[in-house]
Design brief:
This is Alkylphosphonate utilization operon protein PhnA. The protein folds into two domains: 36 residues, N-terminal domain of TfIIb (Single Sheet), CATH 2.20.25; 54 residues, SH3 type barrels. Helices cover 5% and strands 29% of the residues. The protein contains one helix and eleven strands, in the order βββαββββββββ. A hairpin with a 3-residue loop joins β9 and β10. The longest helix is centred in the first third of the chain and has 6 residues. The protein is elongated, with a radius of gyration of 22 Å.
Length: 113
């Protein structure tokens, strides 16, 4: 049971998916499936330690002492971080901290001010 769409060029039903593309083995036509592309554009939904939604430009406070990897510096509890930027990945907050510089934080260790 192939639920993939037929080839728009030759109308073959033997299409298959390779990564982000759909491919027809009969005519070698490649195209992207627009239905799959629309589902990937969901906005980031990142929440702080208390469950409050975060947005770009928010100010947050660190709720736990955080060691800076590769350094002897520590981000202390109560440190305010202004103008955060949300990114995808494990460390989902990109920011600058006074006295330390640019770094990435996990949202589970901050709370919204």
């Amino acid at each position: 049971m192939n639920t993939l769409p037929k080839c728009p060029k030759c109308d073959s039903e033997f299409t298959y998916k390779d990564g982000m593309l759909l491919i027809c083995p009969e005519c070698a036509h490649e195209w992207s499936n627009d239905a799959d592309d629309k589902t990937d554009e969901a906005p980031l939904s990142i929440k702080d330690a208390n469950g409050n939604p975060l947005q770009d430009g928010d100010t947050v406070t660190v709720i736990k002492d955080l060691k800076v990897k590769g350094s002897s510096l520590v981000v202390k509890v109560g440190t305010k971080v202004k103008n955060i930027r949300l990114v995808e990945g494990d460390h989902d907050i990109d920011c600058k901290i006074d006295g330390i510089g640019s770094m990435k934080l996990k949202s589970q260790f901050v709370k919204k001010v």
